[in-house]
Design goal:
Number of helices: 11
Radius of gyration: 17 Å
Helix content: 40-55%
Oligomer: single chain
Structural class: alpha/beta
Order of helices and strands: EHEHEHEHEHEHEHEHHHH
Shape: globular
Largest sheet: 8 strands, parallel
Strand content: 5-15%
Number of strands: 8
């Protein structure tokens, strides 16, 4: 029997899934993936994500402006984000953050948009889903200025010291396909020693495919492969890792997830571990 797990970060709204989105969902569910958190990237993505979530009981929308596409964003869109988030109640504000890896992305604009979106999350008491590349120190500094109600640091690749700071603020750290590559020794070492109570599983589909699917479209159905690697490098059982990472996603996002949807994921057992807030 497949363990029940949640893909805490997948872009099912992307055009890469337009031809077979329903089949992708069905295959992932058959593999044990019982929840899909879909973060927004641009203003134009928001309605498609909301429509997808409205039609699928296990798909959960997040809304945000991704730093990678900052050239398409402006501050007026943050006002639109606030209005839509107030009305629709996404599970998080995201995918937001800073990407200083690419020199062609305007860092000043990224910083302005990130601060404004953190203010939205803070005001609406929503968690955030973070995208961070070569900018963990700047992100952590801003999180201290604008404390939010926890969140997820997606595709975490920072240091142990940085991980500790995120965890101290109640954040979970996302691990995905990169963990399945044997060459990812530093990442595996980090994932092996971090407290399990702060880890979540993700795919970032259609991007960042694992070792078995290199150069192919990534898919939520491959999420169990991340679970497999974690069970190999950690002392806990595969079943325990599956249950705890599922609980972790629920704990971080529980203020905006309905009881009925949580109940469908894992049944009564998971509910005793979750303190409903808000």
């Amino acid at each position: 029997m497949n363990e029940k797990i949640i893909d805490s970060h997948c872009h099912l709204d992307m055009p890469a899934f337009d031809q077979d989105r329903q089949q992708v969902l069905e295959k992932a569910r058959a593999a044990g993936v019982m929840g899909f958190v879909v973060p927004g990237t641009t203003r134009d993505s928001w309605q498609k994500i909301l429509d997808l979530a409205a039609g699928e009981t296990d798909v959960y929308p997040a809304l945000g402006l991704h730093p990678y596409f900052c050239a398409e964003h402006n501050t007026a869109q943050v006002d639109q984000l606030r209005t839509l988030a107030e009305k629709m109640g996404p599970v998080a504000i995201g995918e937001i953050g800073l990407d200083f890896f690419r020199p062609d992305l305007d860092q000043d604009l990224q910083l302005e948009l990130f601060e404004l979106q953190l203010q939205v999350a803070q005001d609406l008491e929503l968690p955030v889903i973070l995208h961070t590349r070569k900018a963990h120190e700047q992100v952590l500094k801003l999180l201290k200025q604008y404390p939010v109600r926890s969140g997820i640091s997606h595709a975490f690749n920072g240091s142990w010291q940085q991980a500790r700071q995120y965890m101290d603020m109640g954040f979970c750290l996302g691990f995905g396909g990169m963990l399945t590559y044997e060459r990812s020794s530093k990442l595996r070492t980090l994932a092996a020693k971090l407290p399990l109570e702060h880890l979540v599983l993700e795919t970032d589909a259609p991007d960042m495919p694992g070792a078995a699917h290199q150069y192919q479209r990534n898919s939520p159905e491959y999420l169990p492969e991340v679970l497999d690697v974690l069970s190999e490098i950690r002392s806990e059982s595969r079943q325990s890792i599956a249950a705890t990472t599922t609980i972790n996603v629920c704990r971080v996002l529980t203020s905006t997830l309905s009881y009925s949807k949580l109940h469908k994921w894992q049944g009564e057992d998971i509910m005793q571990h979750i303190v409903l807030k808000g």
